[in-house]
Amino acid sequence: MIELTGHSLTIEQLKRICVQKEEVTIAEKSMQAVRESRAAVEKIVSENKTVYGITTGFGKFSDVMIAEDHVEDLQLNLIRSHACGVGEPFSEMVSRAMMVLRLNALIKGFSGVRPVVVELLAELINKQIHPVIPQQGSLGASGDLAPLSHLALVLIGEGEVFGKDGHPVATANVFAEKKVQPIVLQAKEGLALINGTQAMVAMGVVNYIEAEQLAYDSEWIAALTMESLEGIIDAFHPAVHEARGYPQQMAVAKRMRDWLEGSQLITRQGDKRVQDAYSLRCIPQVHGASWQALDYVKEKLEIEANAATDNPLIFEGGELVISGGNFHGQPIALAMDFLKIAVAELANIAERRVERLVNPQLNDLPPFLSPEPGLQSGAMIMQYAAASLVSENKTLAHPASVDSIPSSANQEDHVSMGTTSARHAALIIQNSRRVLAIECICALQAVEYQGVEKMAPKLKRKWEQARAIVPSITKDRVFSKDMEAMNDFLNPVIKKNNTAKIFN
């Protein structure tokens, strides 16, 4: 059970909640903040004050006053009209993350919702009732309005949730089965539920969890390639990396040395060649730079996971209500674009290592690692697939955050496109994992020609685990199945939670 406070949620906790399905509870101090914030909203309504989103319309309609007897209609109309998401739904894990993040934002006590709203969100999380939320339709400013509206629909008993088989079912049917009572939204509550960055952050958190694992996997796979090509370990000497000073670069070099400790296949400067190609020699520099980006992304995600991102925000017991712009997703949009580039580069350099493994002009191995060169093609077309994925990544890595398009009659004239950044980052992570799967398959095969008995002990254990997934290439077969099997092996999130695939 993880206690949510609105201030201390970490990615590790989100991983436990969203991957391992750990339950949540709300800190009493946070519930008191919710009660006080709600009392302020009720006072505003009773005094008929002019406050955006509470007694007025939304966006360009912010100058339209709403009578007290229409406040509930205003919130219901908002959710129904804004539920304009399209396309395939986010995965169930992303949906769960979205609920947790929205709950954590609301219990900060700046949003003015009733305790029953946050209690229902916690109940749905703990009963694993997850909204079906279309991926497309958010501009990433004014909040993730369309995706979060589909989440809010579920709270009022409408919309769809994931059924036991992963397919959409009517919320009303599941509520009846699980004995859950929907709510009737009151003043400010609809707006508080949808004005936020939780779709892009939820997708971003899942991206980070998978990208972090992919970055670690890229190192032992690169180490396998080093053994396969009898690479020069001197390039990983600590003095080289201390001379430059990047902590992440030094850490990658250390982990590479650890993986290769005891190997009889690696060489020293001058043994076989003076220096290796960049894709081997510069592993700490390139992978280390990607780790720098990952560290940046993690920092921004954890700040945003504990942020109040709706509008308006209520301070000083309702005496100070400010209409601001914390819903603008620019910090996460930039972070997701950075993540896209960082992960794409892990695939980029991995594909170059694949080329060195299969190209007979660049190694002393059988051409394309074929058991019968000429008669059998071996890993020839695996490299094609890796090249295709890397090329696709280059188009996806174009930053979505540099685009903006005005909305709401130009009232909302600059938007972040952060949810698009997060979605494209997810695709790049999927593509990059498959490139690493291809490198792994090729390195597993190549190291057999060099002598498995000479491998570093840690890498030999990895070789044994991976060989249980993909057998040795003794003749040509449908390698697509091997590549997918290795891809799944490299994604423990999917293995632990069969609904955790980012895109269904």
Could you please describe the fold and organization of this structure?
The chain has 504 residues and is mostly helical. The chain has two domains: 2-196, Orthogonal Bundle (Fumarase C, Chain B, domain 1); 203-312 and 338-402 and 416-496, Up-down Bundle (Fumarase C, Chain A, domain 2). It has helices at 11-18, 28-46, 71-82, 92-106, 115-126, 145-155, 171-178, 189-194, 198-228, 238-244, 247-260, 278-281, 283-305, 330-358, 380-396, 418-450, 457-467, 479-489, 492-496; strands spanning 2-4, 24-26, 86-89, 134-136, 160-162, 168-170, 313-315, 320-322. The strands form four sheets. The protein has a two-stranded parallel sheet. Strands 3-4 form a two-stranded antiparallel sheet. A two-stranded antiparallel ribbon has the order 5-6. It is elongated and about 85 Å long. The modification 2,3-didehydroalanine (Ser) is found at residue 142. It comes from Tigheibacillus jepli. It is an enzyme of class 4 (lyase).
Keywords:
8 strands; Fumarase C, Chain A, domain 2; 19 helices; two-stranded antiparallel ribbon; Fumarase C, Chain B, domain 1; mainly alpha; two-stranded parallel sheet; 2 domains; about 500 residues
N-C termini distance? 28 Å
| Whole-number mean pLDDT | 93
Principal-axes geometry comes out as elongated
Radius of gyration, rounded?
26 Å
Structure class: mainly alpha
Number of domains: 2
Estimate what percentage of residues fall within beta strands: under 5%
CATH class of the largest domain reads Mainly Alpha
CATH topology of the largest domain: Fumarase C, Chain A, domain 2
CATH superfamily of the largest domain: Fumarase/aspartase (Central domain)
* Helicity, as a percent range: 40-55%
Main sheet overview:
2 strands, parallel
Main-sheet strand order equals: 1-2
The strand count comes to 8
Oligomer: single chain
Family: Belongs to the PAL/histidase family.
Modified residues (2,3-didehydroalanine (Ser)): 142
Subcellular location: Cytoplasm
Cross-link (5-imidazolinone (Ala-Gly)): 141-143
